[in-house]
Known about the structure:
The structure holds 2 protein chains of 2 kinds. Chain A is of the alpha/beta class. Chain A is built from 5 helices and 11 strands.
Amino acid sequence: MKFGIVVFPGTWSDGDCYYAIHNVLGYEAGYIWHKETDLSGYDCLVLPGGFSYGDYLRVGAIARFSRVMVSVERFAQGGGLVIGICNGFQILCEAGLLPGVLLPNDHLQYRCQGTCLRVENNAVPFASRCSTGQVLKVPISHYEGNYFAEEAVLREMEANGQIMLRYCSPQGEVTEKFNPNGSLHNIAGIINNGGNVMGMMPHPERVCEELLGGDDGNLIWESINDYLHERTE
Amino acid sequence: MTISTKELNKVALSREEYNFIVQKLGREPTEVELGMFGSLWSEHCGYKYSAPLLKLLPSRGERVLVGPGEENAGVVDIGDGQVVVMKIESHNHPSAIEPYQGAATGVGGIVRDIFTMGARPVALLNSLRFGPLENEHNRYLFNGVVGGIAGYGNCLGIPNVGGEIVFANCYSGNPLVNALCLGIAEKGKLMKAQAGAAGNVLMLVGADTGRDGIHGASGLASRTFDGEQELRPTVQVGNPFLEKLLIEACLELVQADWVLGMQDLGAAGLTSSVIESVAKAGKGVVMDVLRVSRREEGMTPYEVMLSESQERMLVIVREGCEDKVKVVLERWDLCADVIGQVTEDGLAVIREGEKVVASVPVSLLSSPPRYRRQGKKPLWLEEVQSWEASSLLDLTVGQCNETLLRLLSSPNIASKETVYRQYDHQVMNNSVVLPGEDAAVLRVRGTEKGLSLTCDGNGRYCYLDPCAGGAIAVAEAARNLVCSGARPLALTDCLNFGNPEKDDVYYQMEECIKGMAQACDMLQIPVISGNVSLYNETRGEAIYPTPVVGMVGVIRDLEKRCTMPFKDKGDRVFLLGGEGDGGIGGSEYLEVMHGLVKGKPAIDLDREKQVQQCCLEAIERGIIKSAHDCADGGLMVAVAECCITGGIGLSGKEWCVDDRLDVALFGEQQGRIIISVAPDAVTEIERLACKYHVFLDYLGQVGGEQLSLEEYICLPVEELAKAWRRGI
């Protein structure tokens, strides 16, 4: 089982993802440079956070055209697991691998803070270790995390169970008060229709050790690992 | 030919300095030479006024590997084969003119100082000063500066873990933006900013050179100014994405043994970078401005030499290895130009193709004149210091609650969460204690250790008593680290003052530095790096003398770290170190409640040392459960902060105030720490306090939902929190 962490110019949570996946959890992981095209040997791709290409123009808009993305698309189409975190989520939306788009936060400020996330659908490879309704504590750090999609698209996503995580209170209530950026339907993380591509704005790689304030993030990585093991068996 | 005063002003040289240059050269300097002298002899680069005073600061210590002025930043050994590289730097003047870019490039500049040395930048802090936010322009500056720090720092992926923000009238129109960066490197793997032997090749890497920031060092940072519009082009524009690439590329380059030196381009651009690196090697240089890639056409040699375009780095490589540098940079989509070569003759020869546009001895460029002036205590200071509390009515018992709420919601004391939540403080996965505490704590990977970081300075204290204020800045920073369980290791300072050519400003500077030196000696904390920002004035009015101290300490065992919030019901709360009468002179209380900035702050460094050692031993032995520096706003504010952050109350009994109530509750005596201990640890803490001969006053017991102290204070924690959180 090997995680491949994609590195664009300007990516900065590549090291954090590697540390969480490899050093904390002991899974195999490697970096994939944005100019590479051969993704053989990887079982799950991680598009980490950061400011790919400075996020000039529009978040993720340049990164989606980098060479590696053609391979990422092919990997996803073949059913491979892809997880995009923060900037990675934005890139996946730009690339059309996930529906919708991430707009600037409604308050027009960057936000780095703890958030609570309610698991809406645990019947996906990324959340099998969680129970539906469980509240995870995972911090955010972004300027463009305000999820938007057309009403019809949202309806379909809701019906398909594609909303995986929503911002909520520590008790799990999904209310406007606990929405940190104006996201429609308090959306923090979604999956594609095929269930193999996931994007989330919060940073699970930041909460994998009690020393750093919690380890809820491990549930995501462990879920992925479980799924990959089951698939090979 | 005689040069006009206007032209001399442009390069910030005095007539005497100009005549001296002519005498040494035996001729008039060329335009390029004049620009080079102006910037290298500016206060910003040359420390004309401050250098003699900076020598007063102790900079030696067994762990100090690189002291002030030797390299781009100071270096201190943290054990386990690792070193910390640290420096603080101001970007006050650019931020006054264009707050977003000024602050952003301030962050960019200090980060380059750290990775130039081969260290991975792992933390940013900043110390900010503004005029009151009721004023629209101040709010514009505040929002711009915070936005710039966030915009640049967040893009780099370096956590911004702490700092301080203070508001006072004197900073209206002249905000202070001091940025600190700390990096970690392997011991013995540091890069020097040195050109080495003749024949070595100078390469300029990173951004192309444009017309931005010309005269930044001489014009903006080294004289007072008014009429900001006209100066806007002297502020640089930052590109954090490019800087991020430059960090990664340079940290790859330092691994190679054919890369011999690195020097970033900051104030005075190519001029200071090239000249400083060859001066350190005692060599000369020949370079060609035509080889420098430009952003725009028609740039003159003068503009190329003085441009302060950001995100550039001078890399010195062994001859023949130029292409190897290019290979590394290409991977990051960056370019490199070969611009010159180190020579033996000690001359700085700047060419534009075949034409020589400057040819002067490096030693002359790099030895600016030094001015040691005679400071004089100003008369007005006597007057403000002679103020007596007795001229003021004491608080009545009935006023205490309201006063506490007012202080908690005053901008200087209130929570700064609305600011720091705009900075990424967790990236890199090392942040153990987040902003909002006395000190930020980072783990050091692969060890059990933690690094504790803080930034402190109180301009009001320094205004009222520069010497005591300087000492307090050092003592308070150390106290903050101690509260987290760290042993202070080293400090970096940013000295922000007005125009040093004025007697009272020079006096302030001299006294502040003396005070800092006394505290450094007493607490045995060396100064490893720093920066001076002078001419902070608007319309002839100087800012408060504001030395800012950035300090790093080591927590031996992270498991033993300590934080501010009260923890568990039943814990006993004590004031460690309370003793004698500190008065209310210079306090936040006096300014907020009475509109007075008067009195004479004081510090007893002996007692300070005892208190800090006692607290540290108590934390290291696991006796205490929380510790919080008792500082701005005094005892009641400190206790309220422990309640708010802990989400739990305190009930105080057997309290008696025999002196003035305002002094007891809101006086800002130094050397005090609020601690809480489990009930069964009371005897131990008492024994420890005895051992160090420090006072230990019982305050009460943790629990409930209220902060109550006899008949004086009785407020729900929720109400305290509300006041504290609405301040900014």
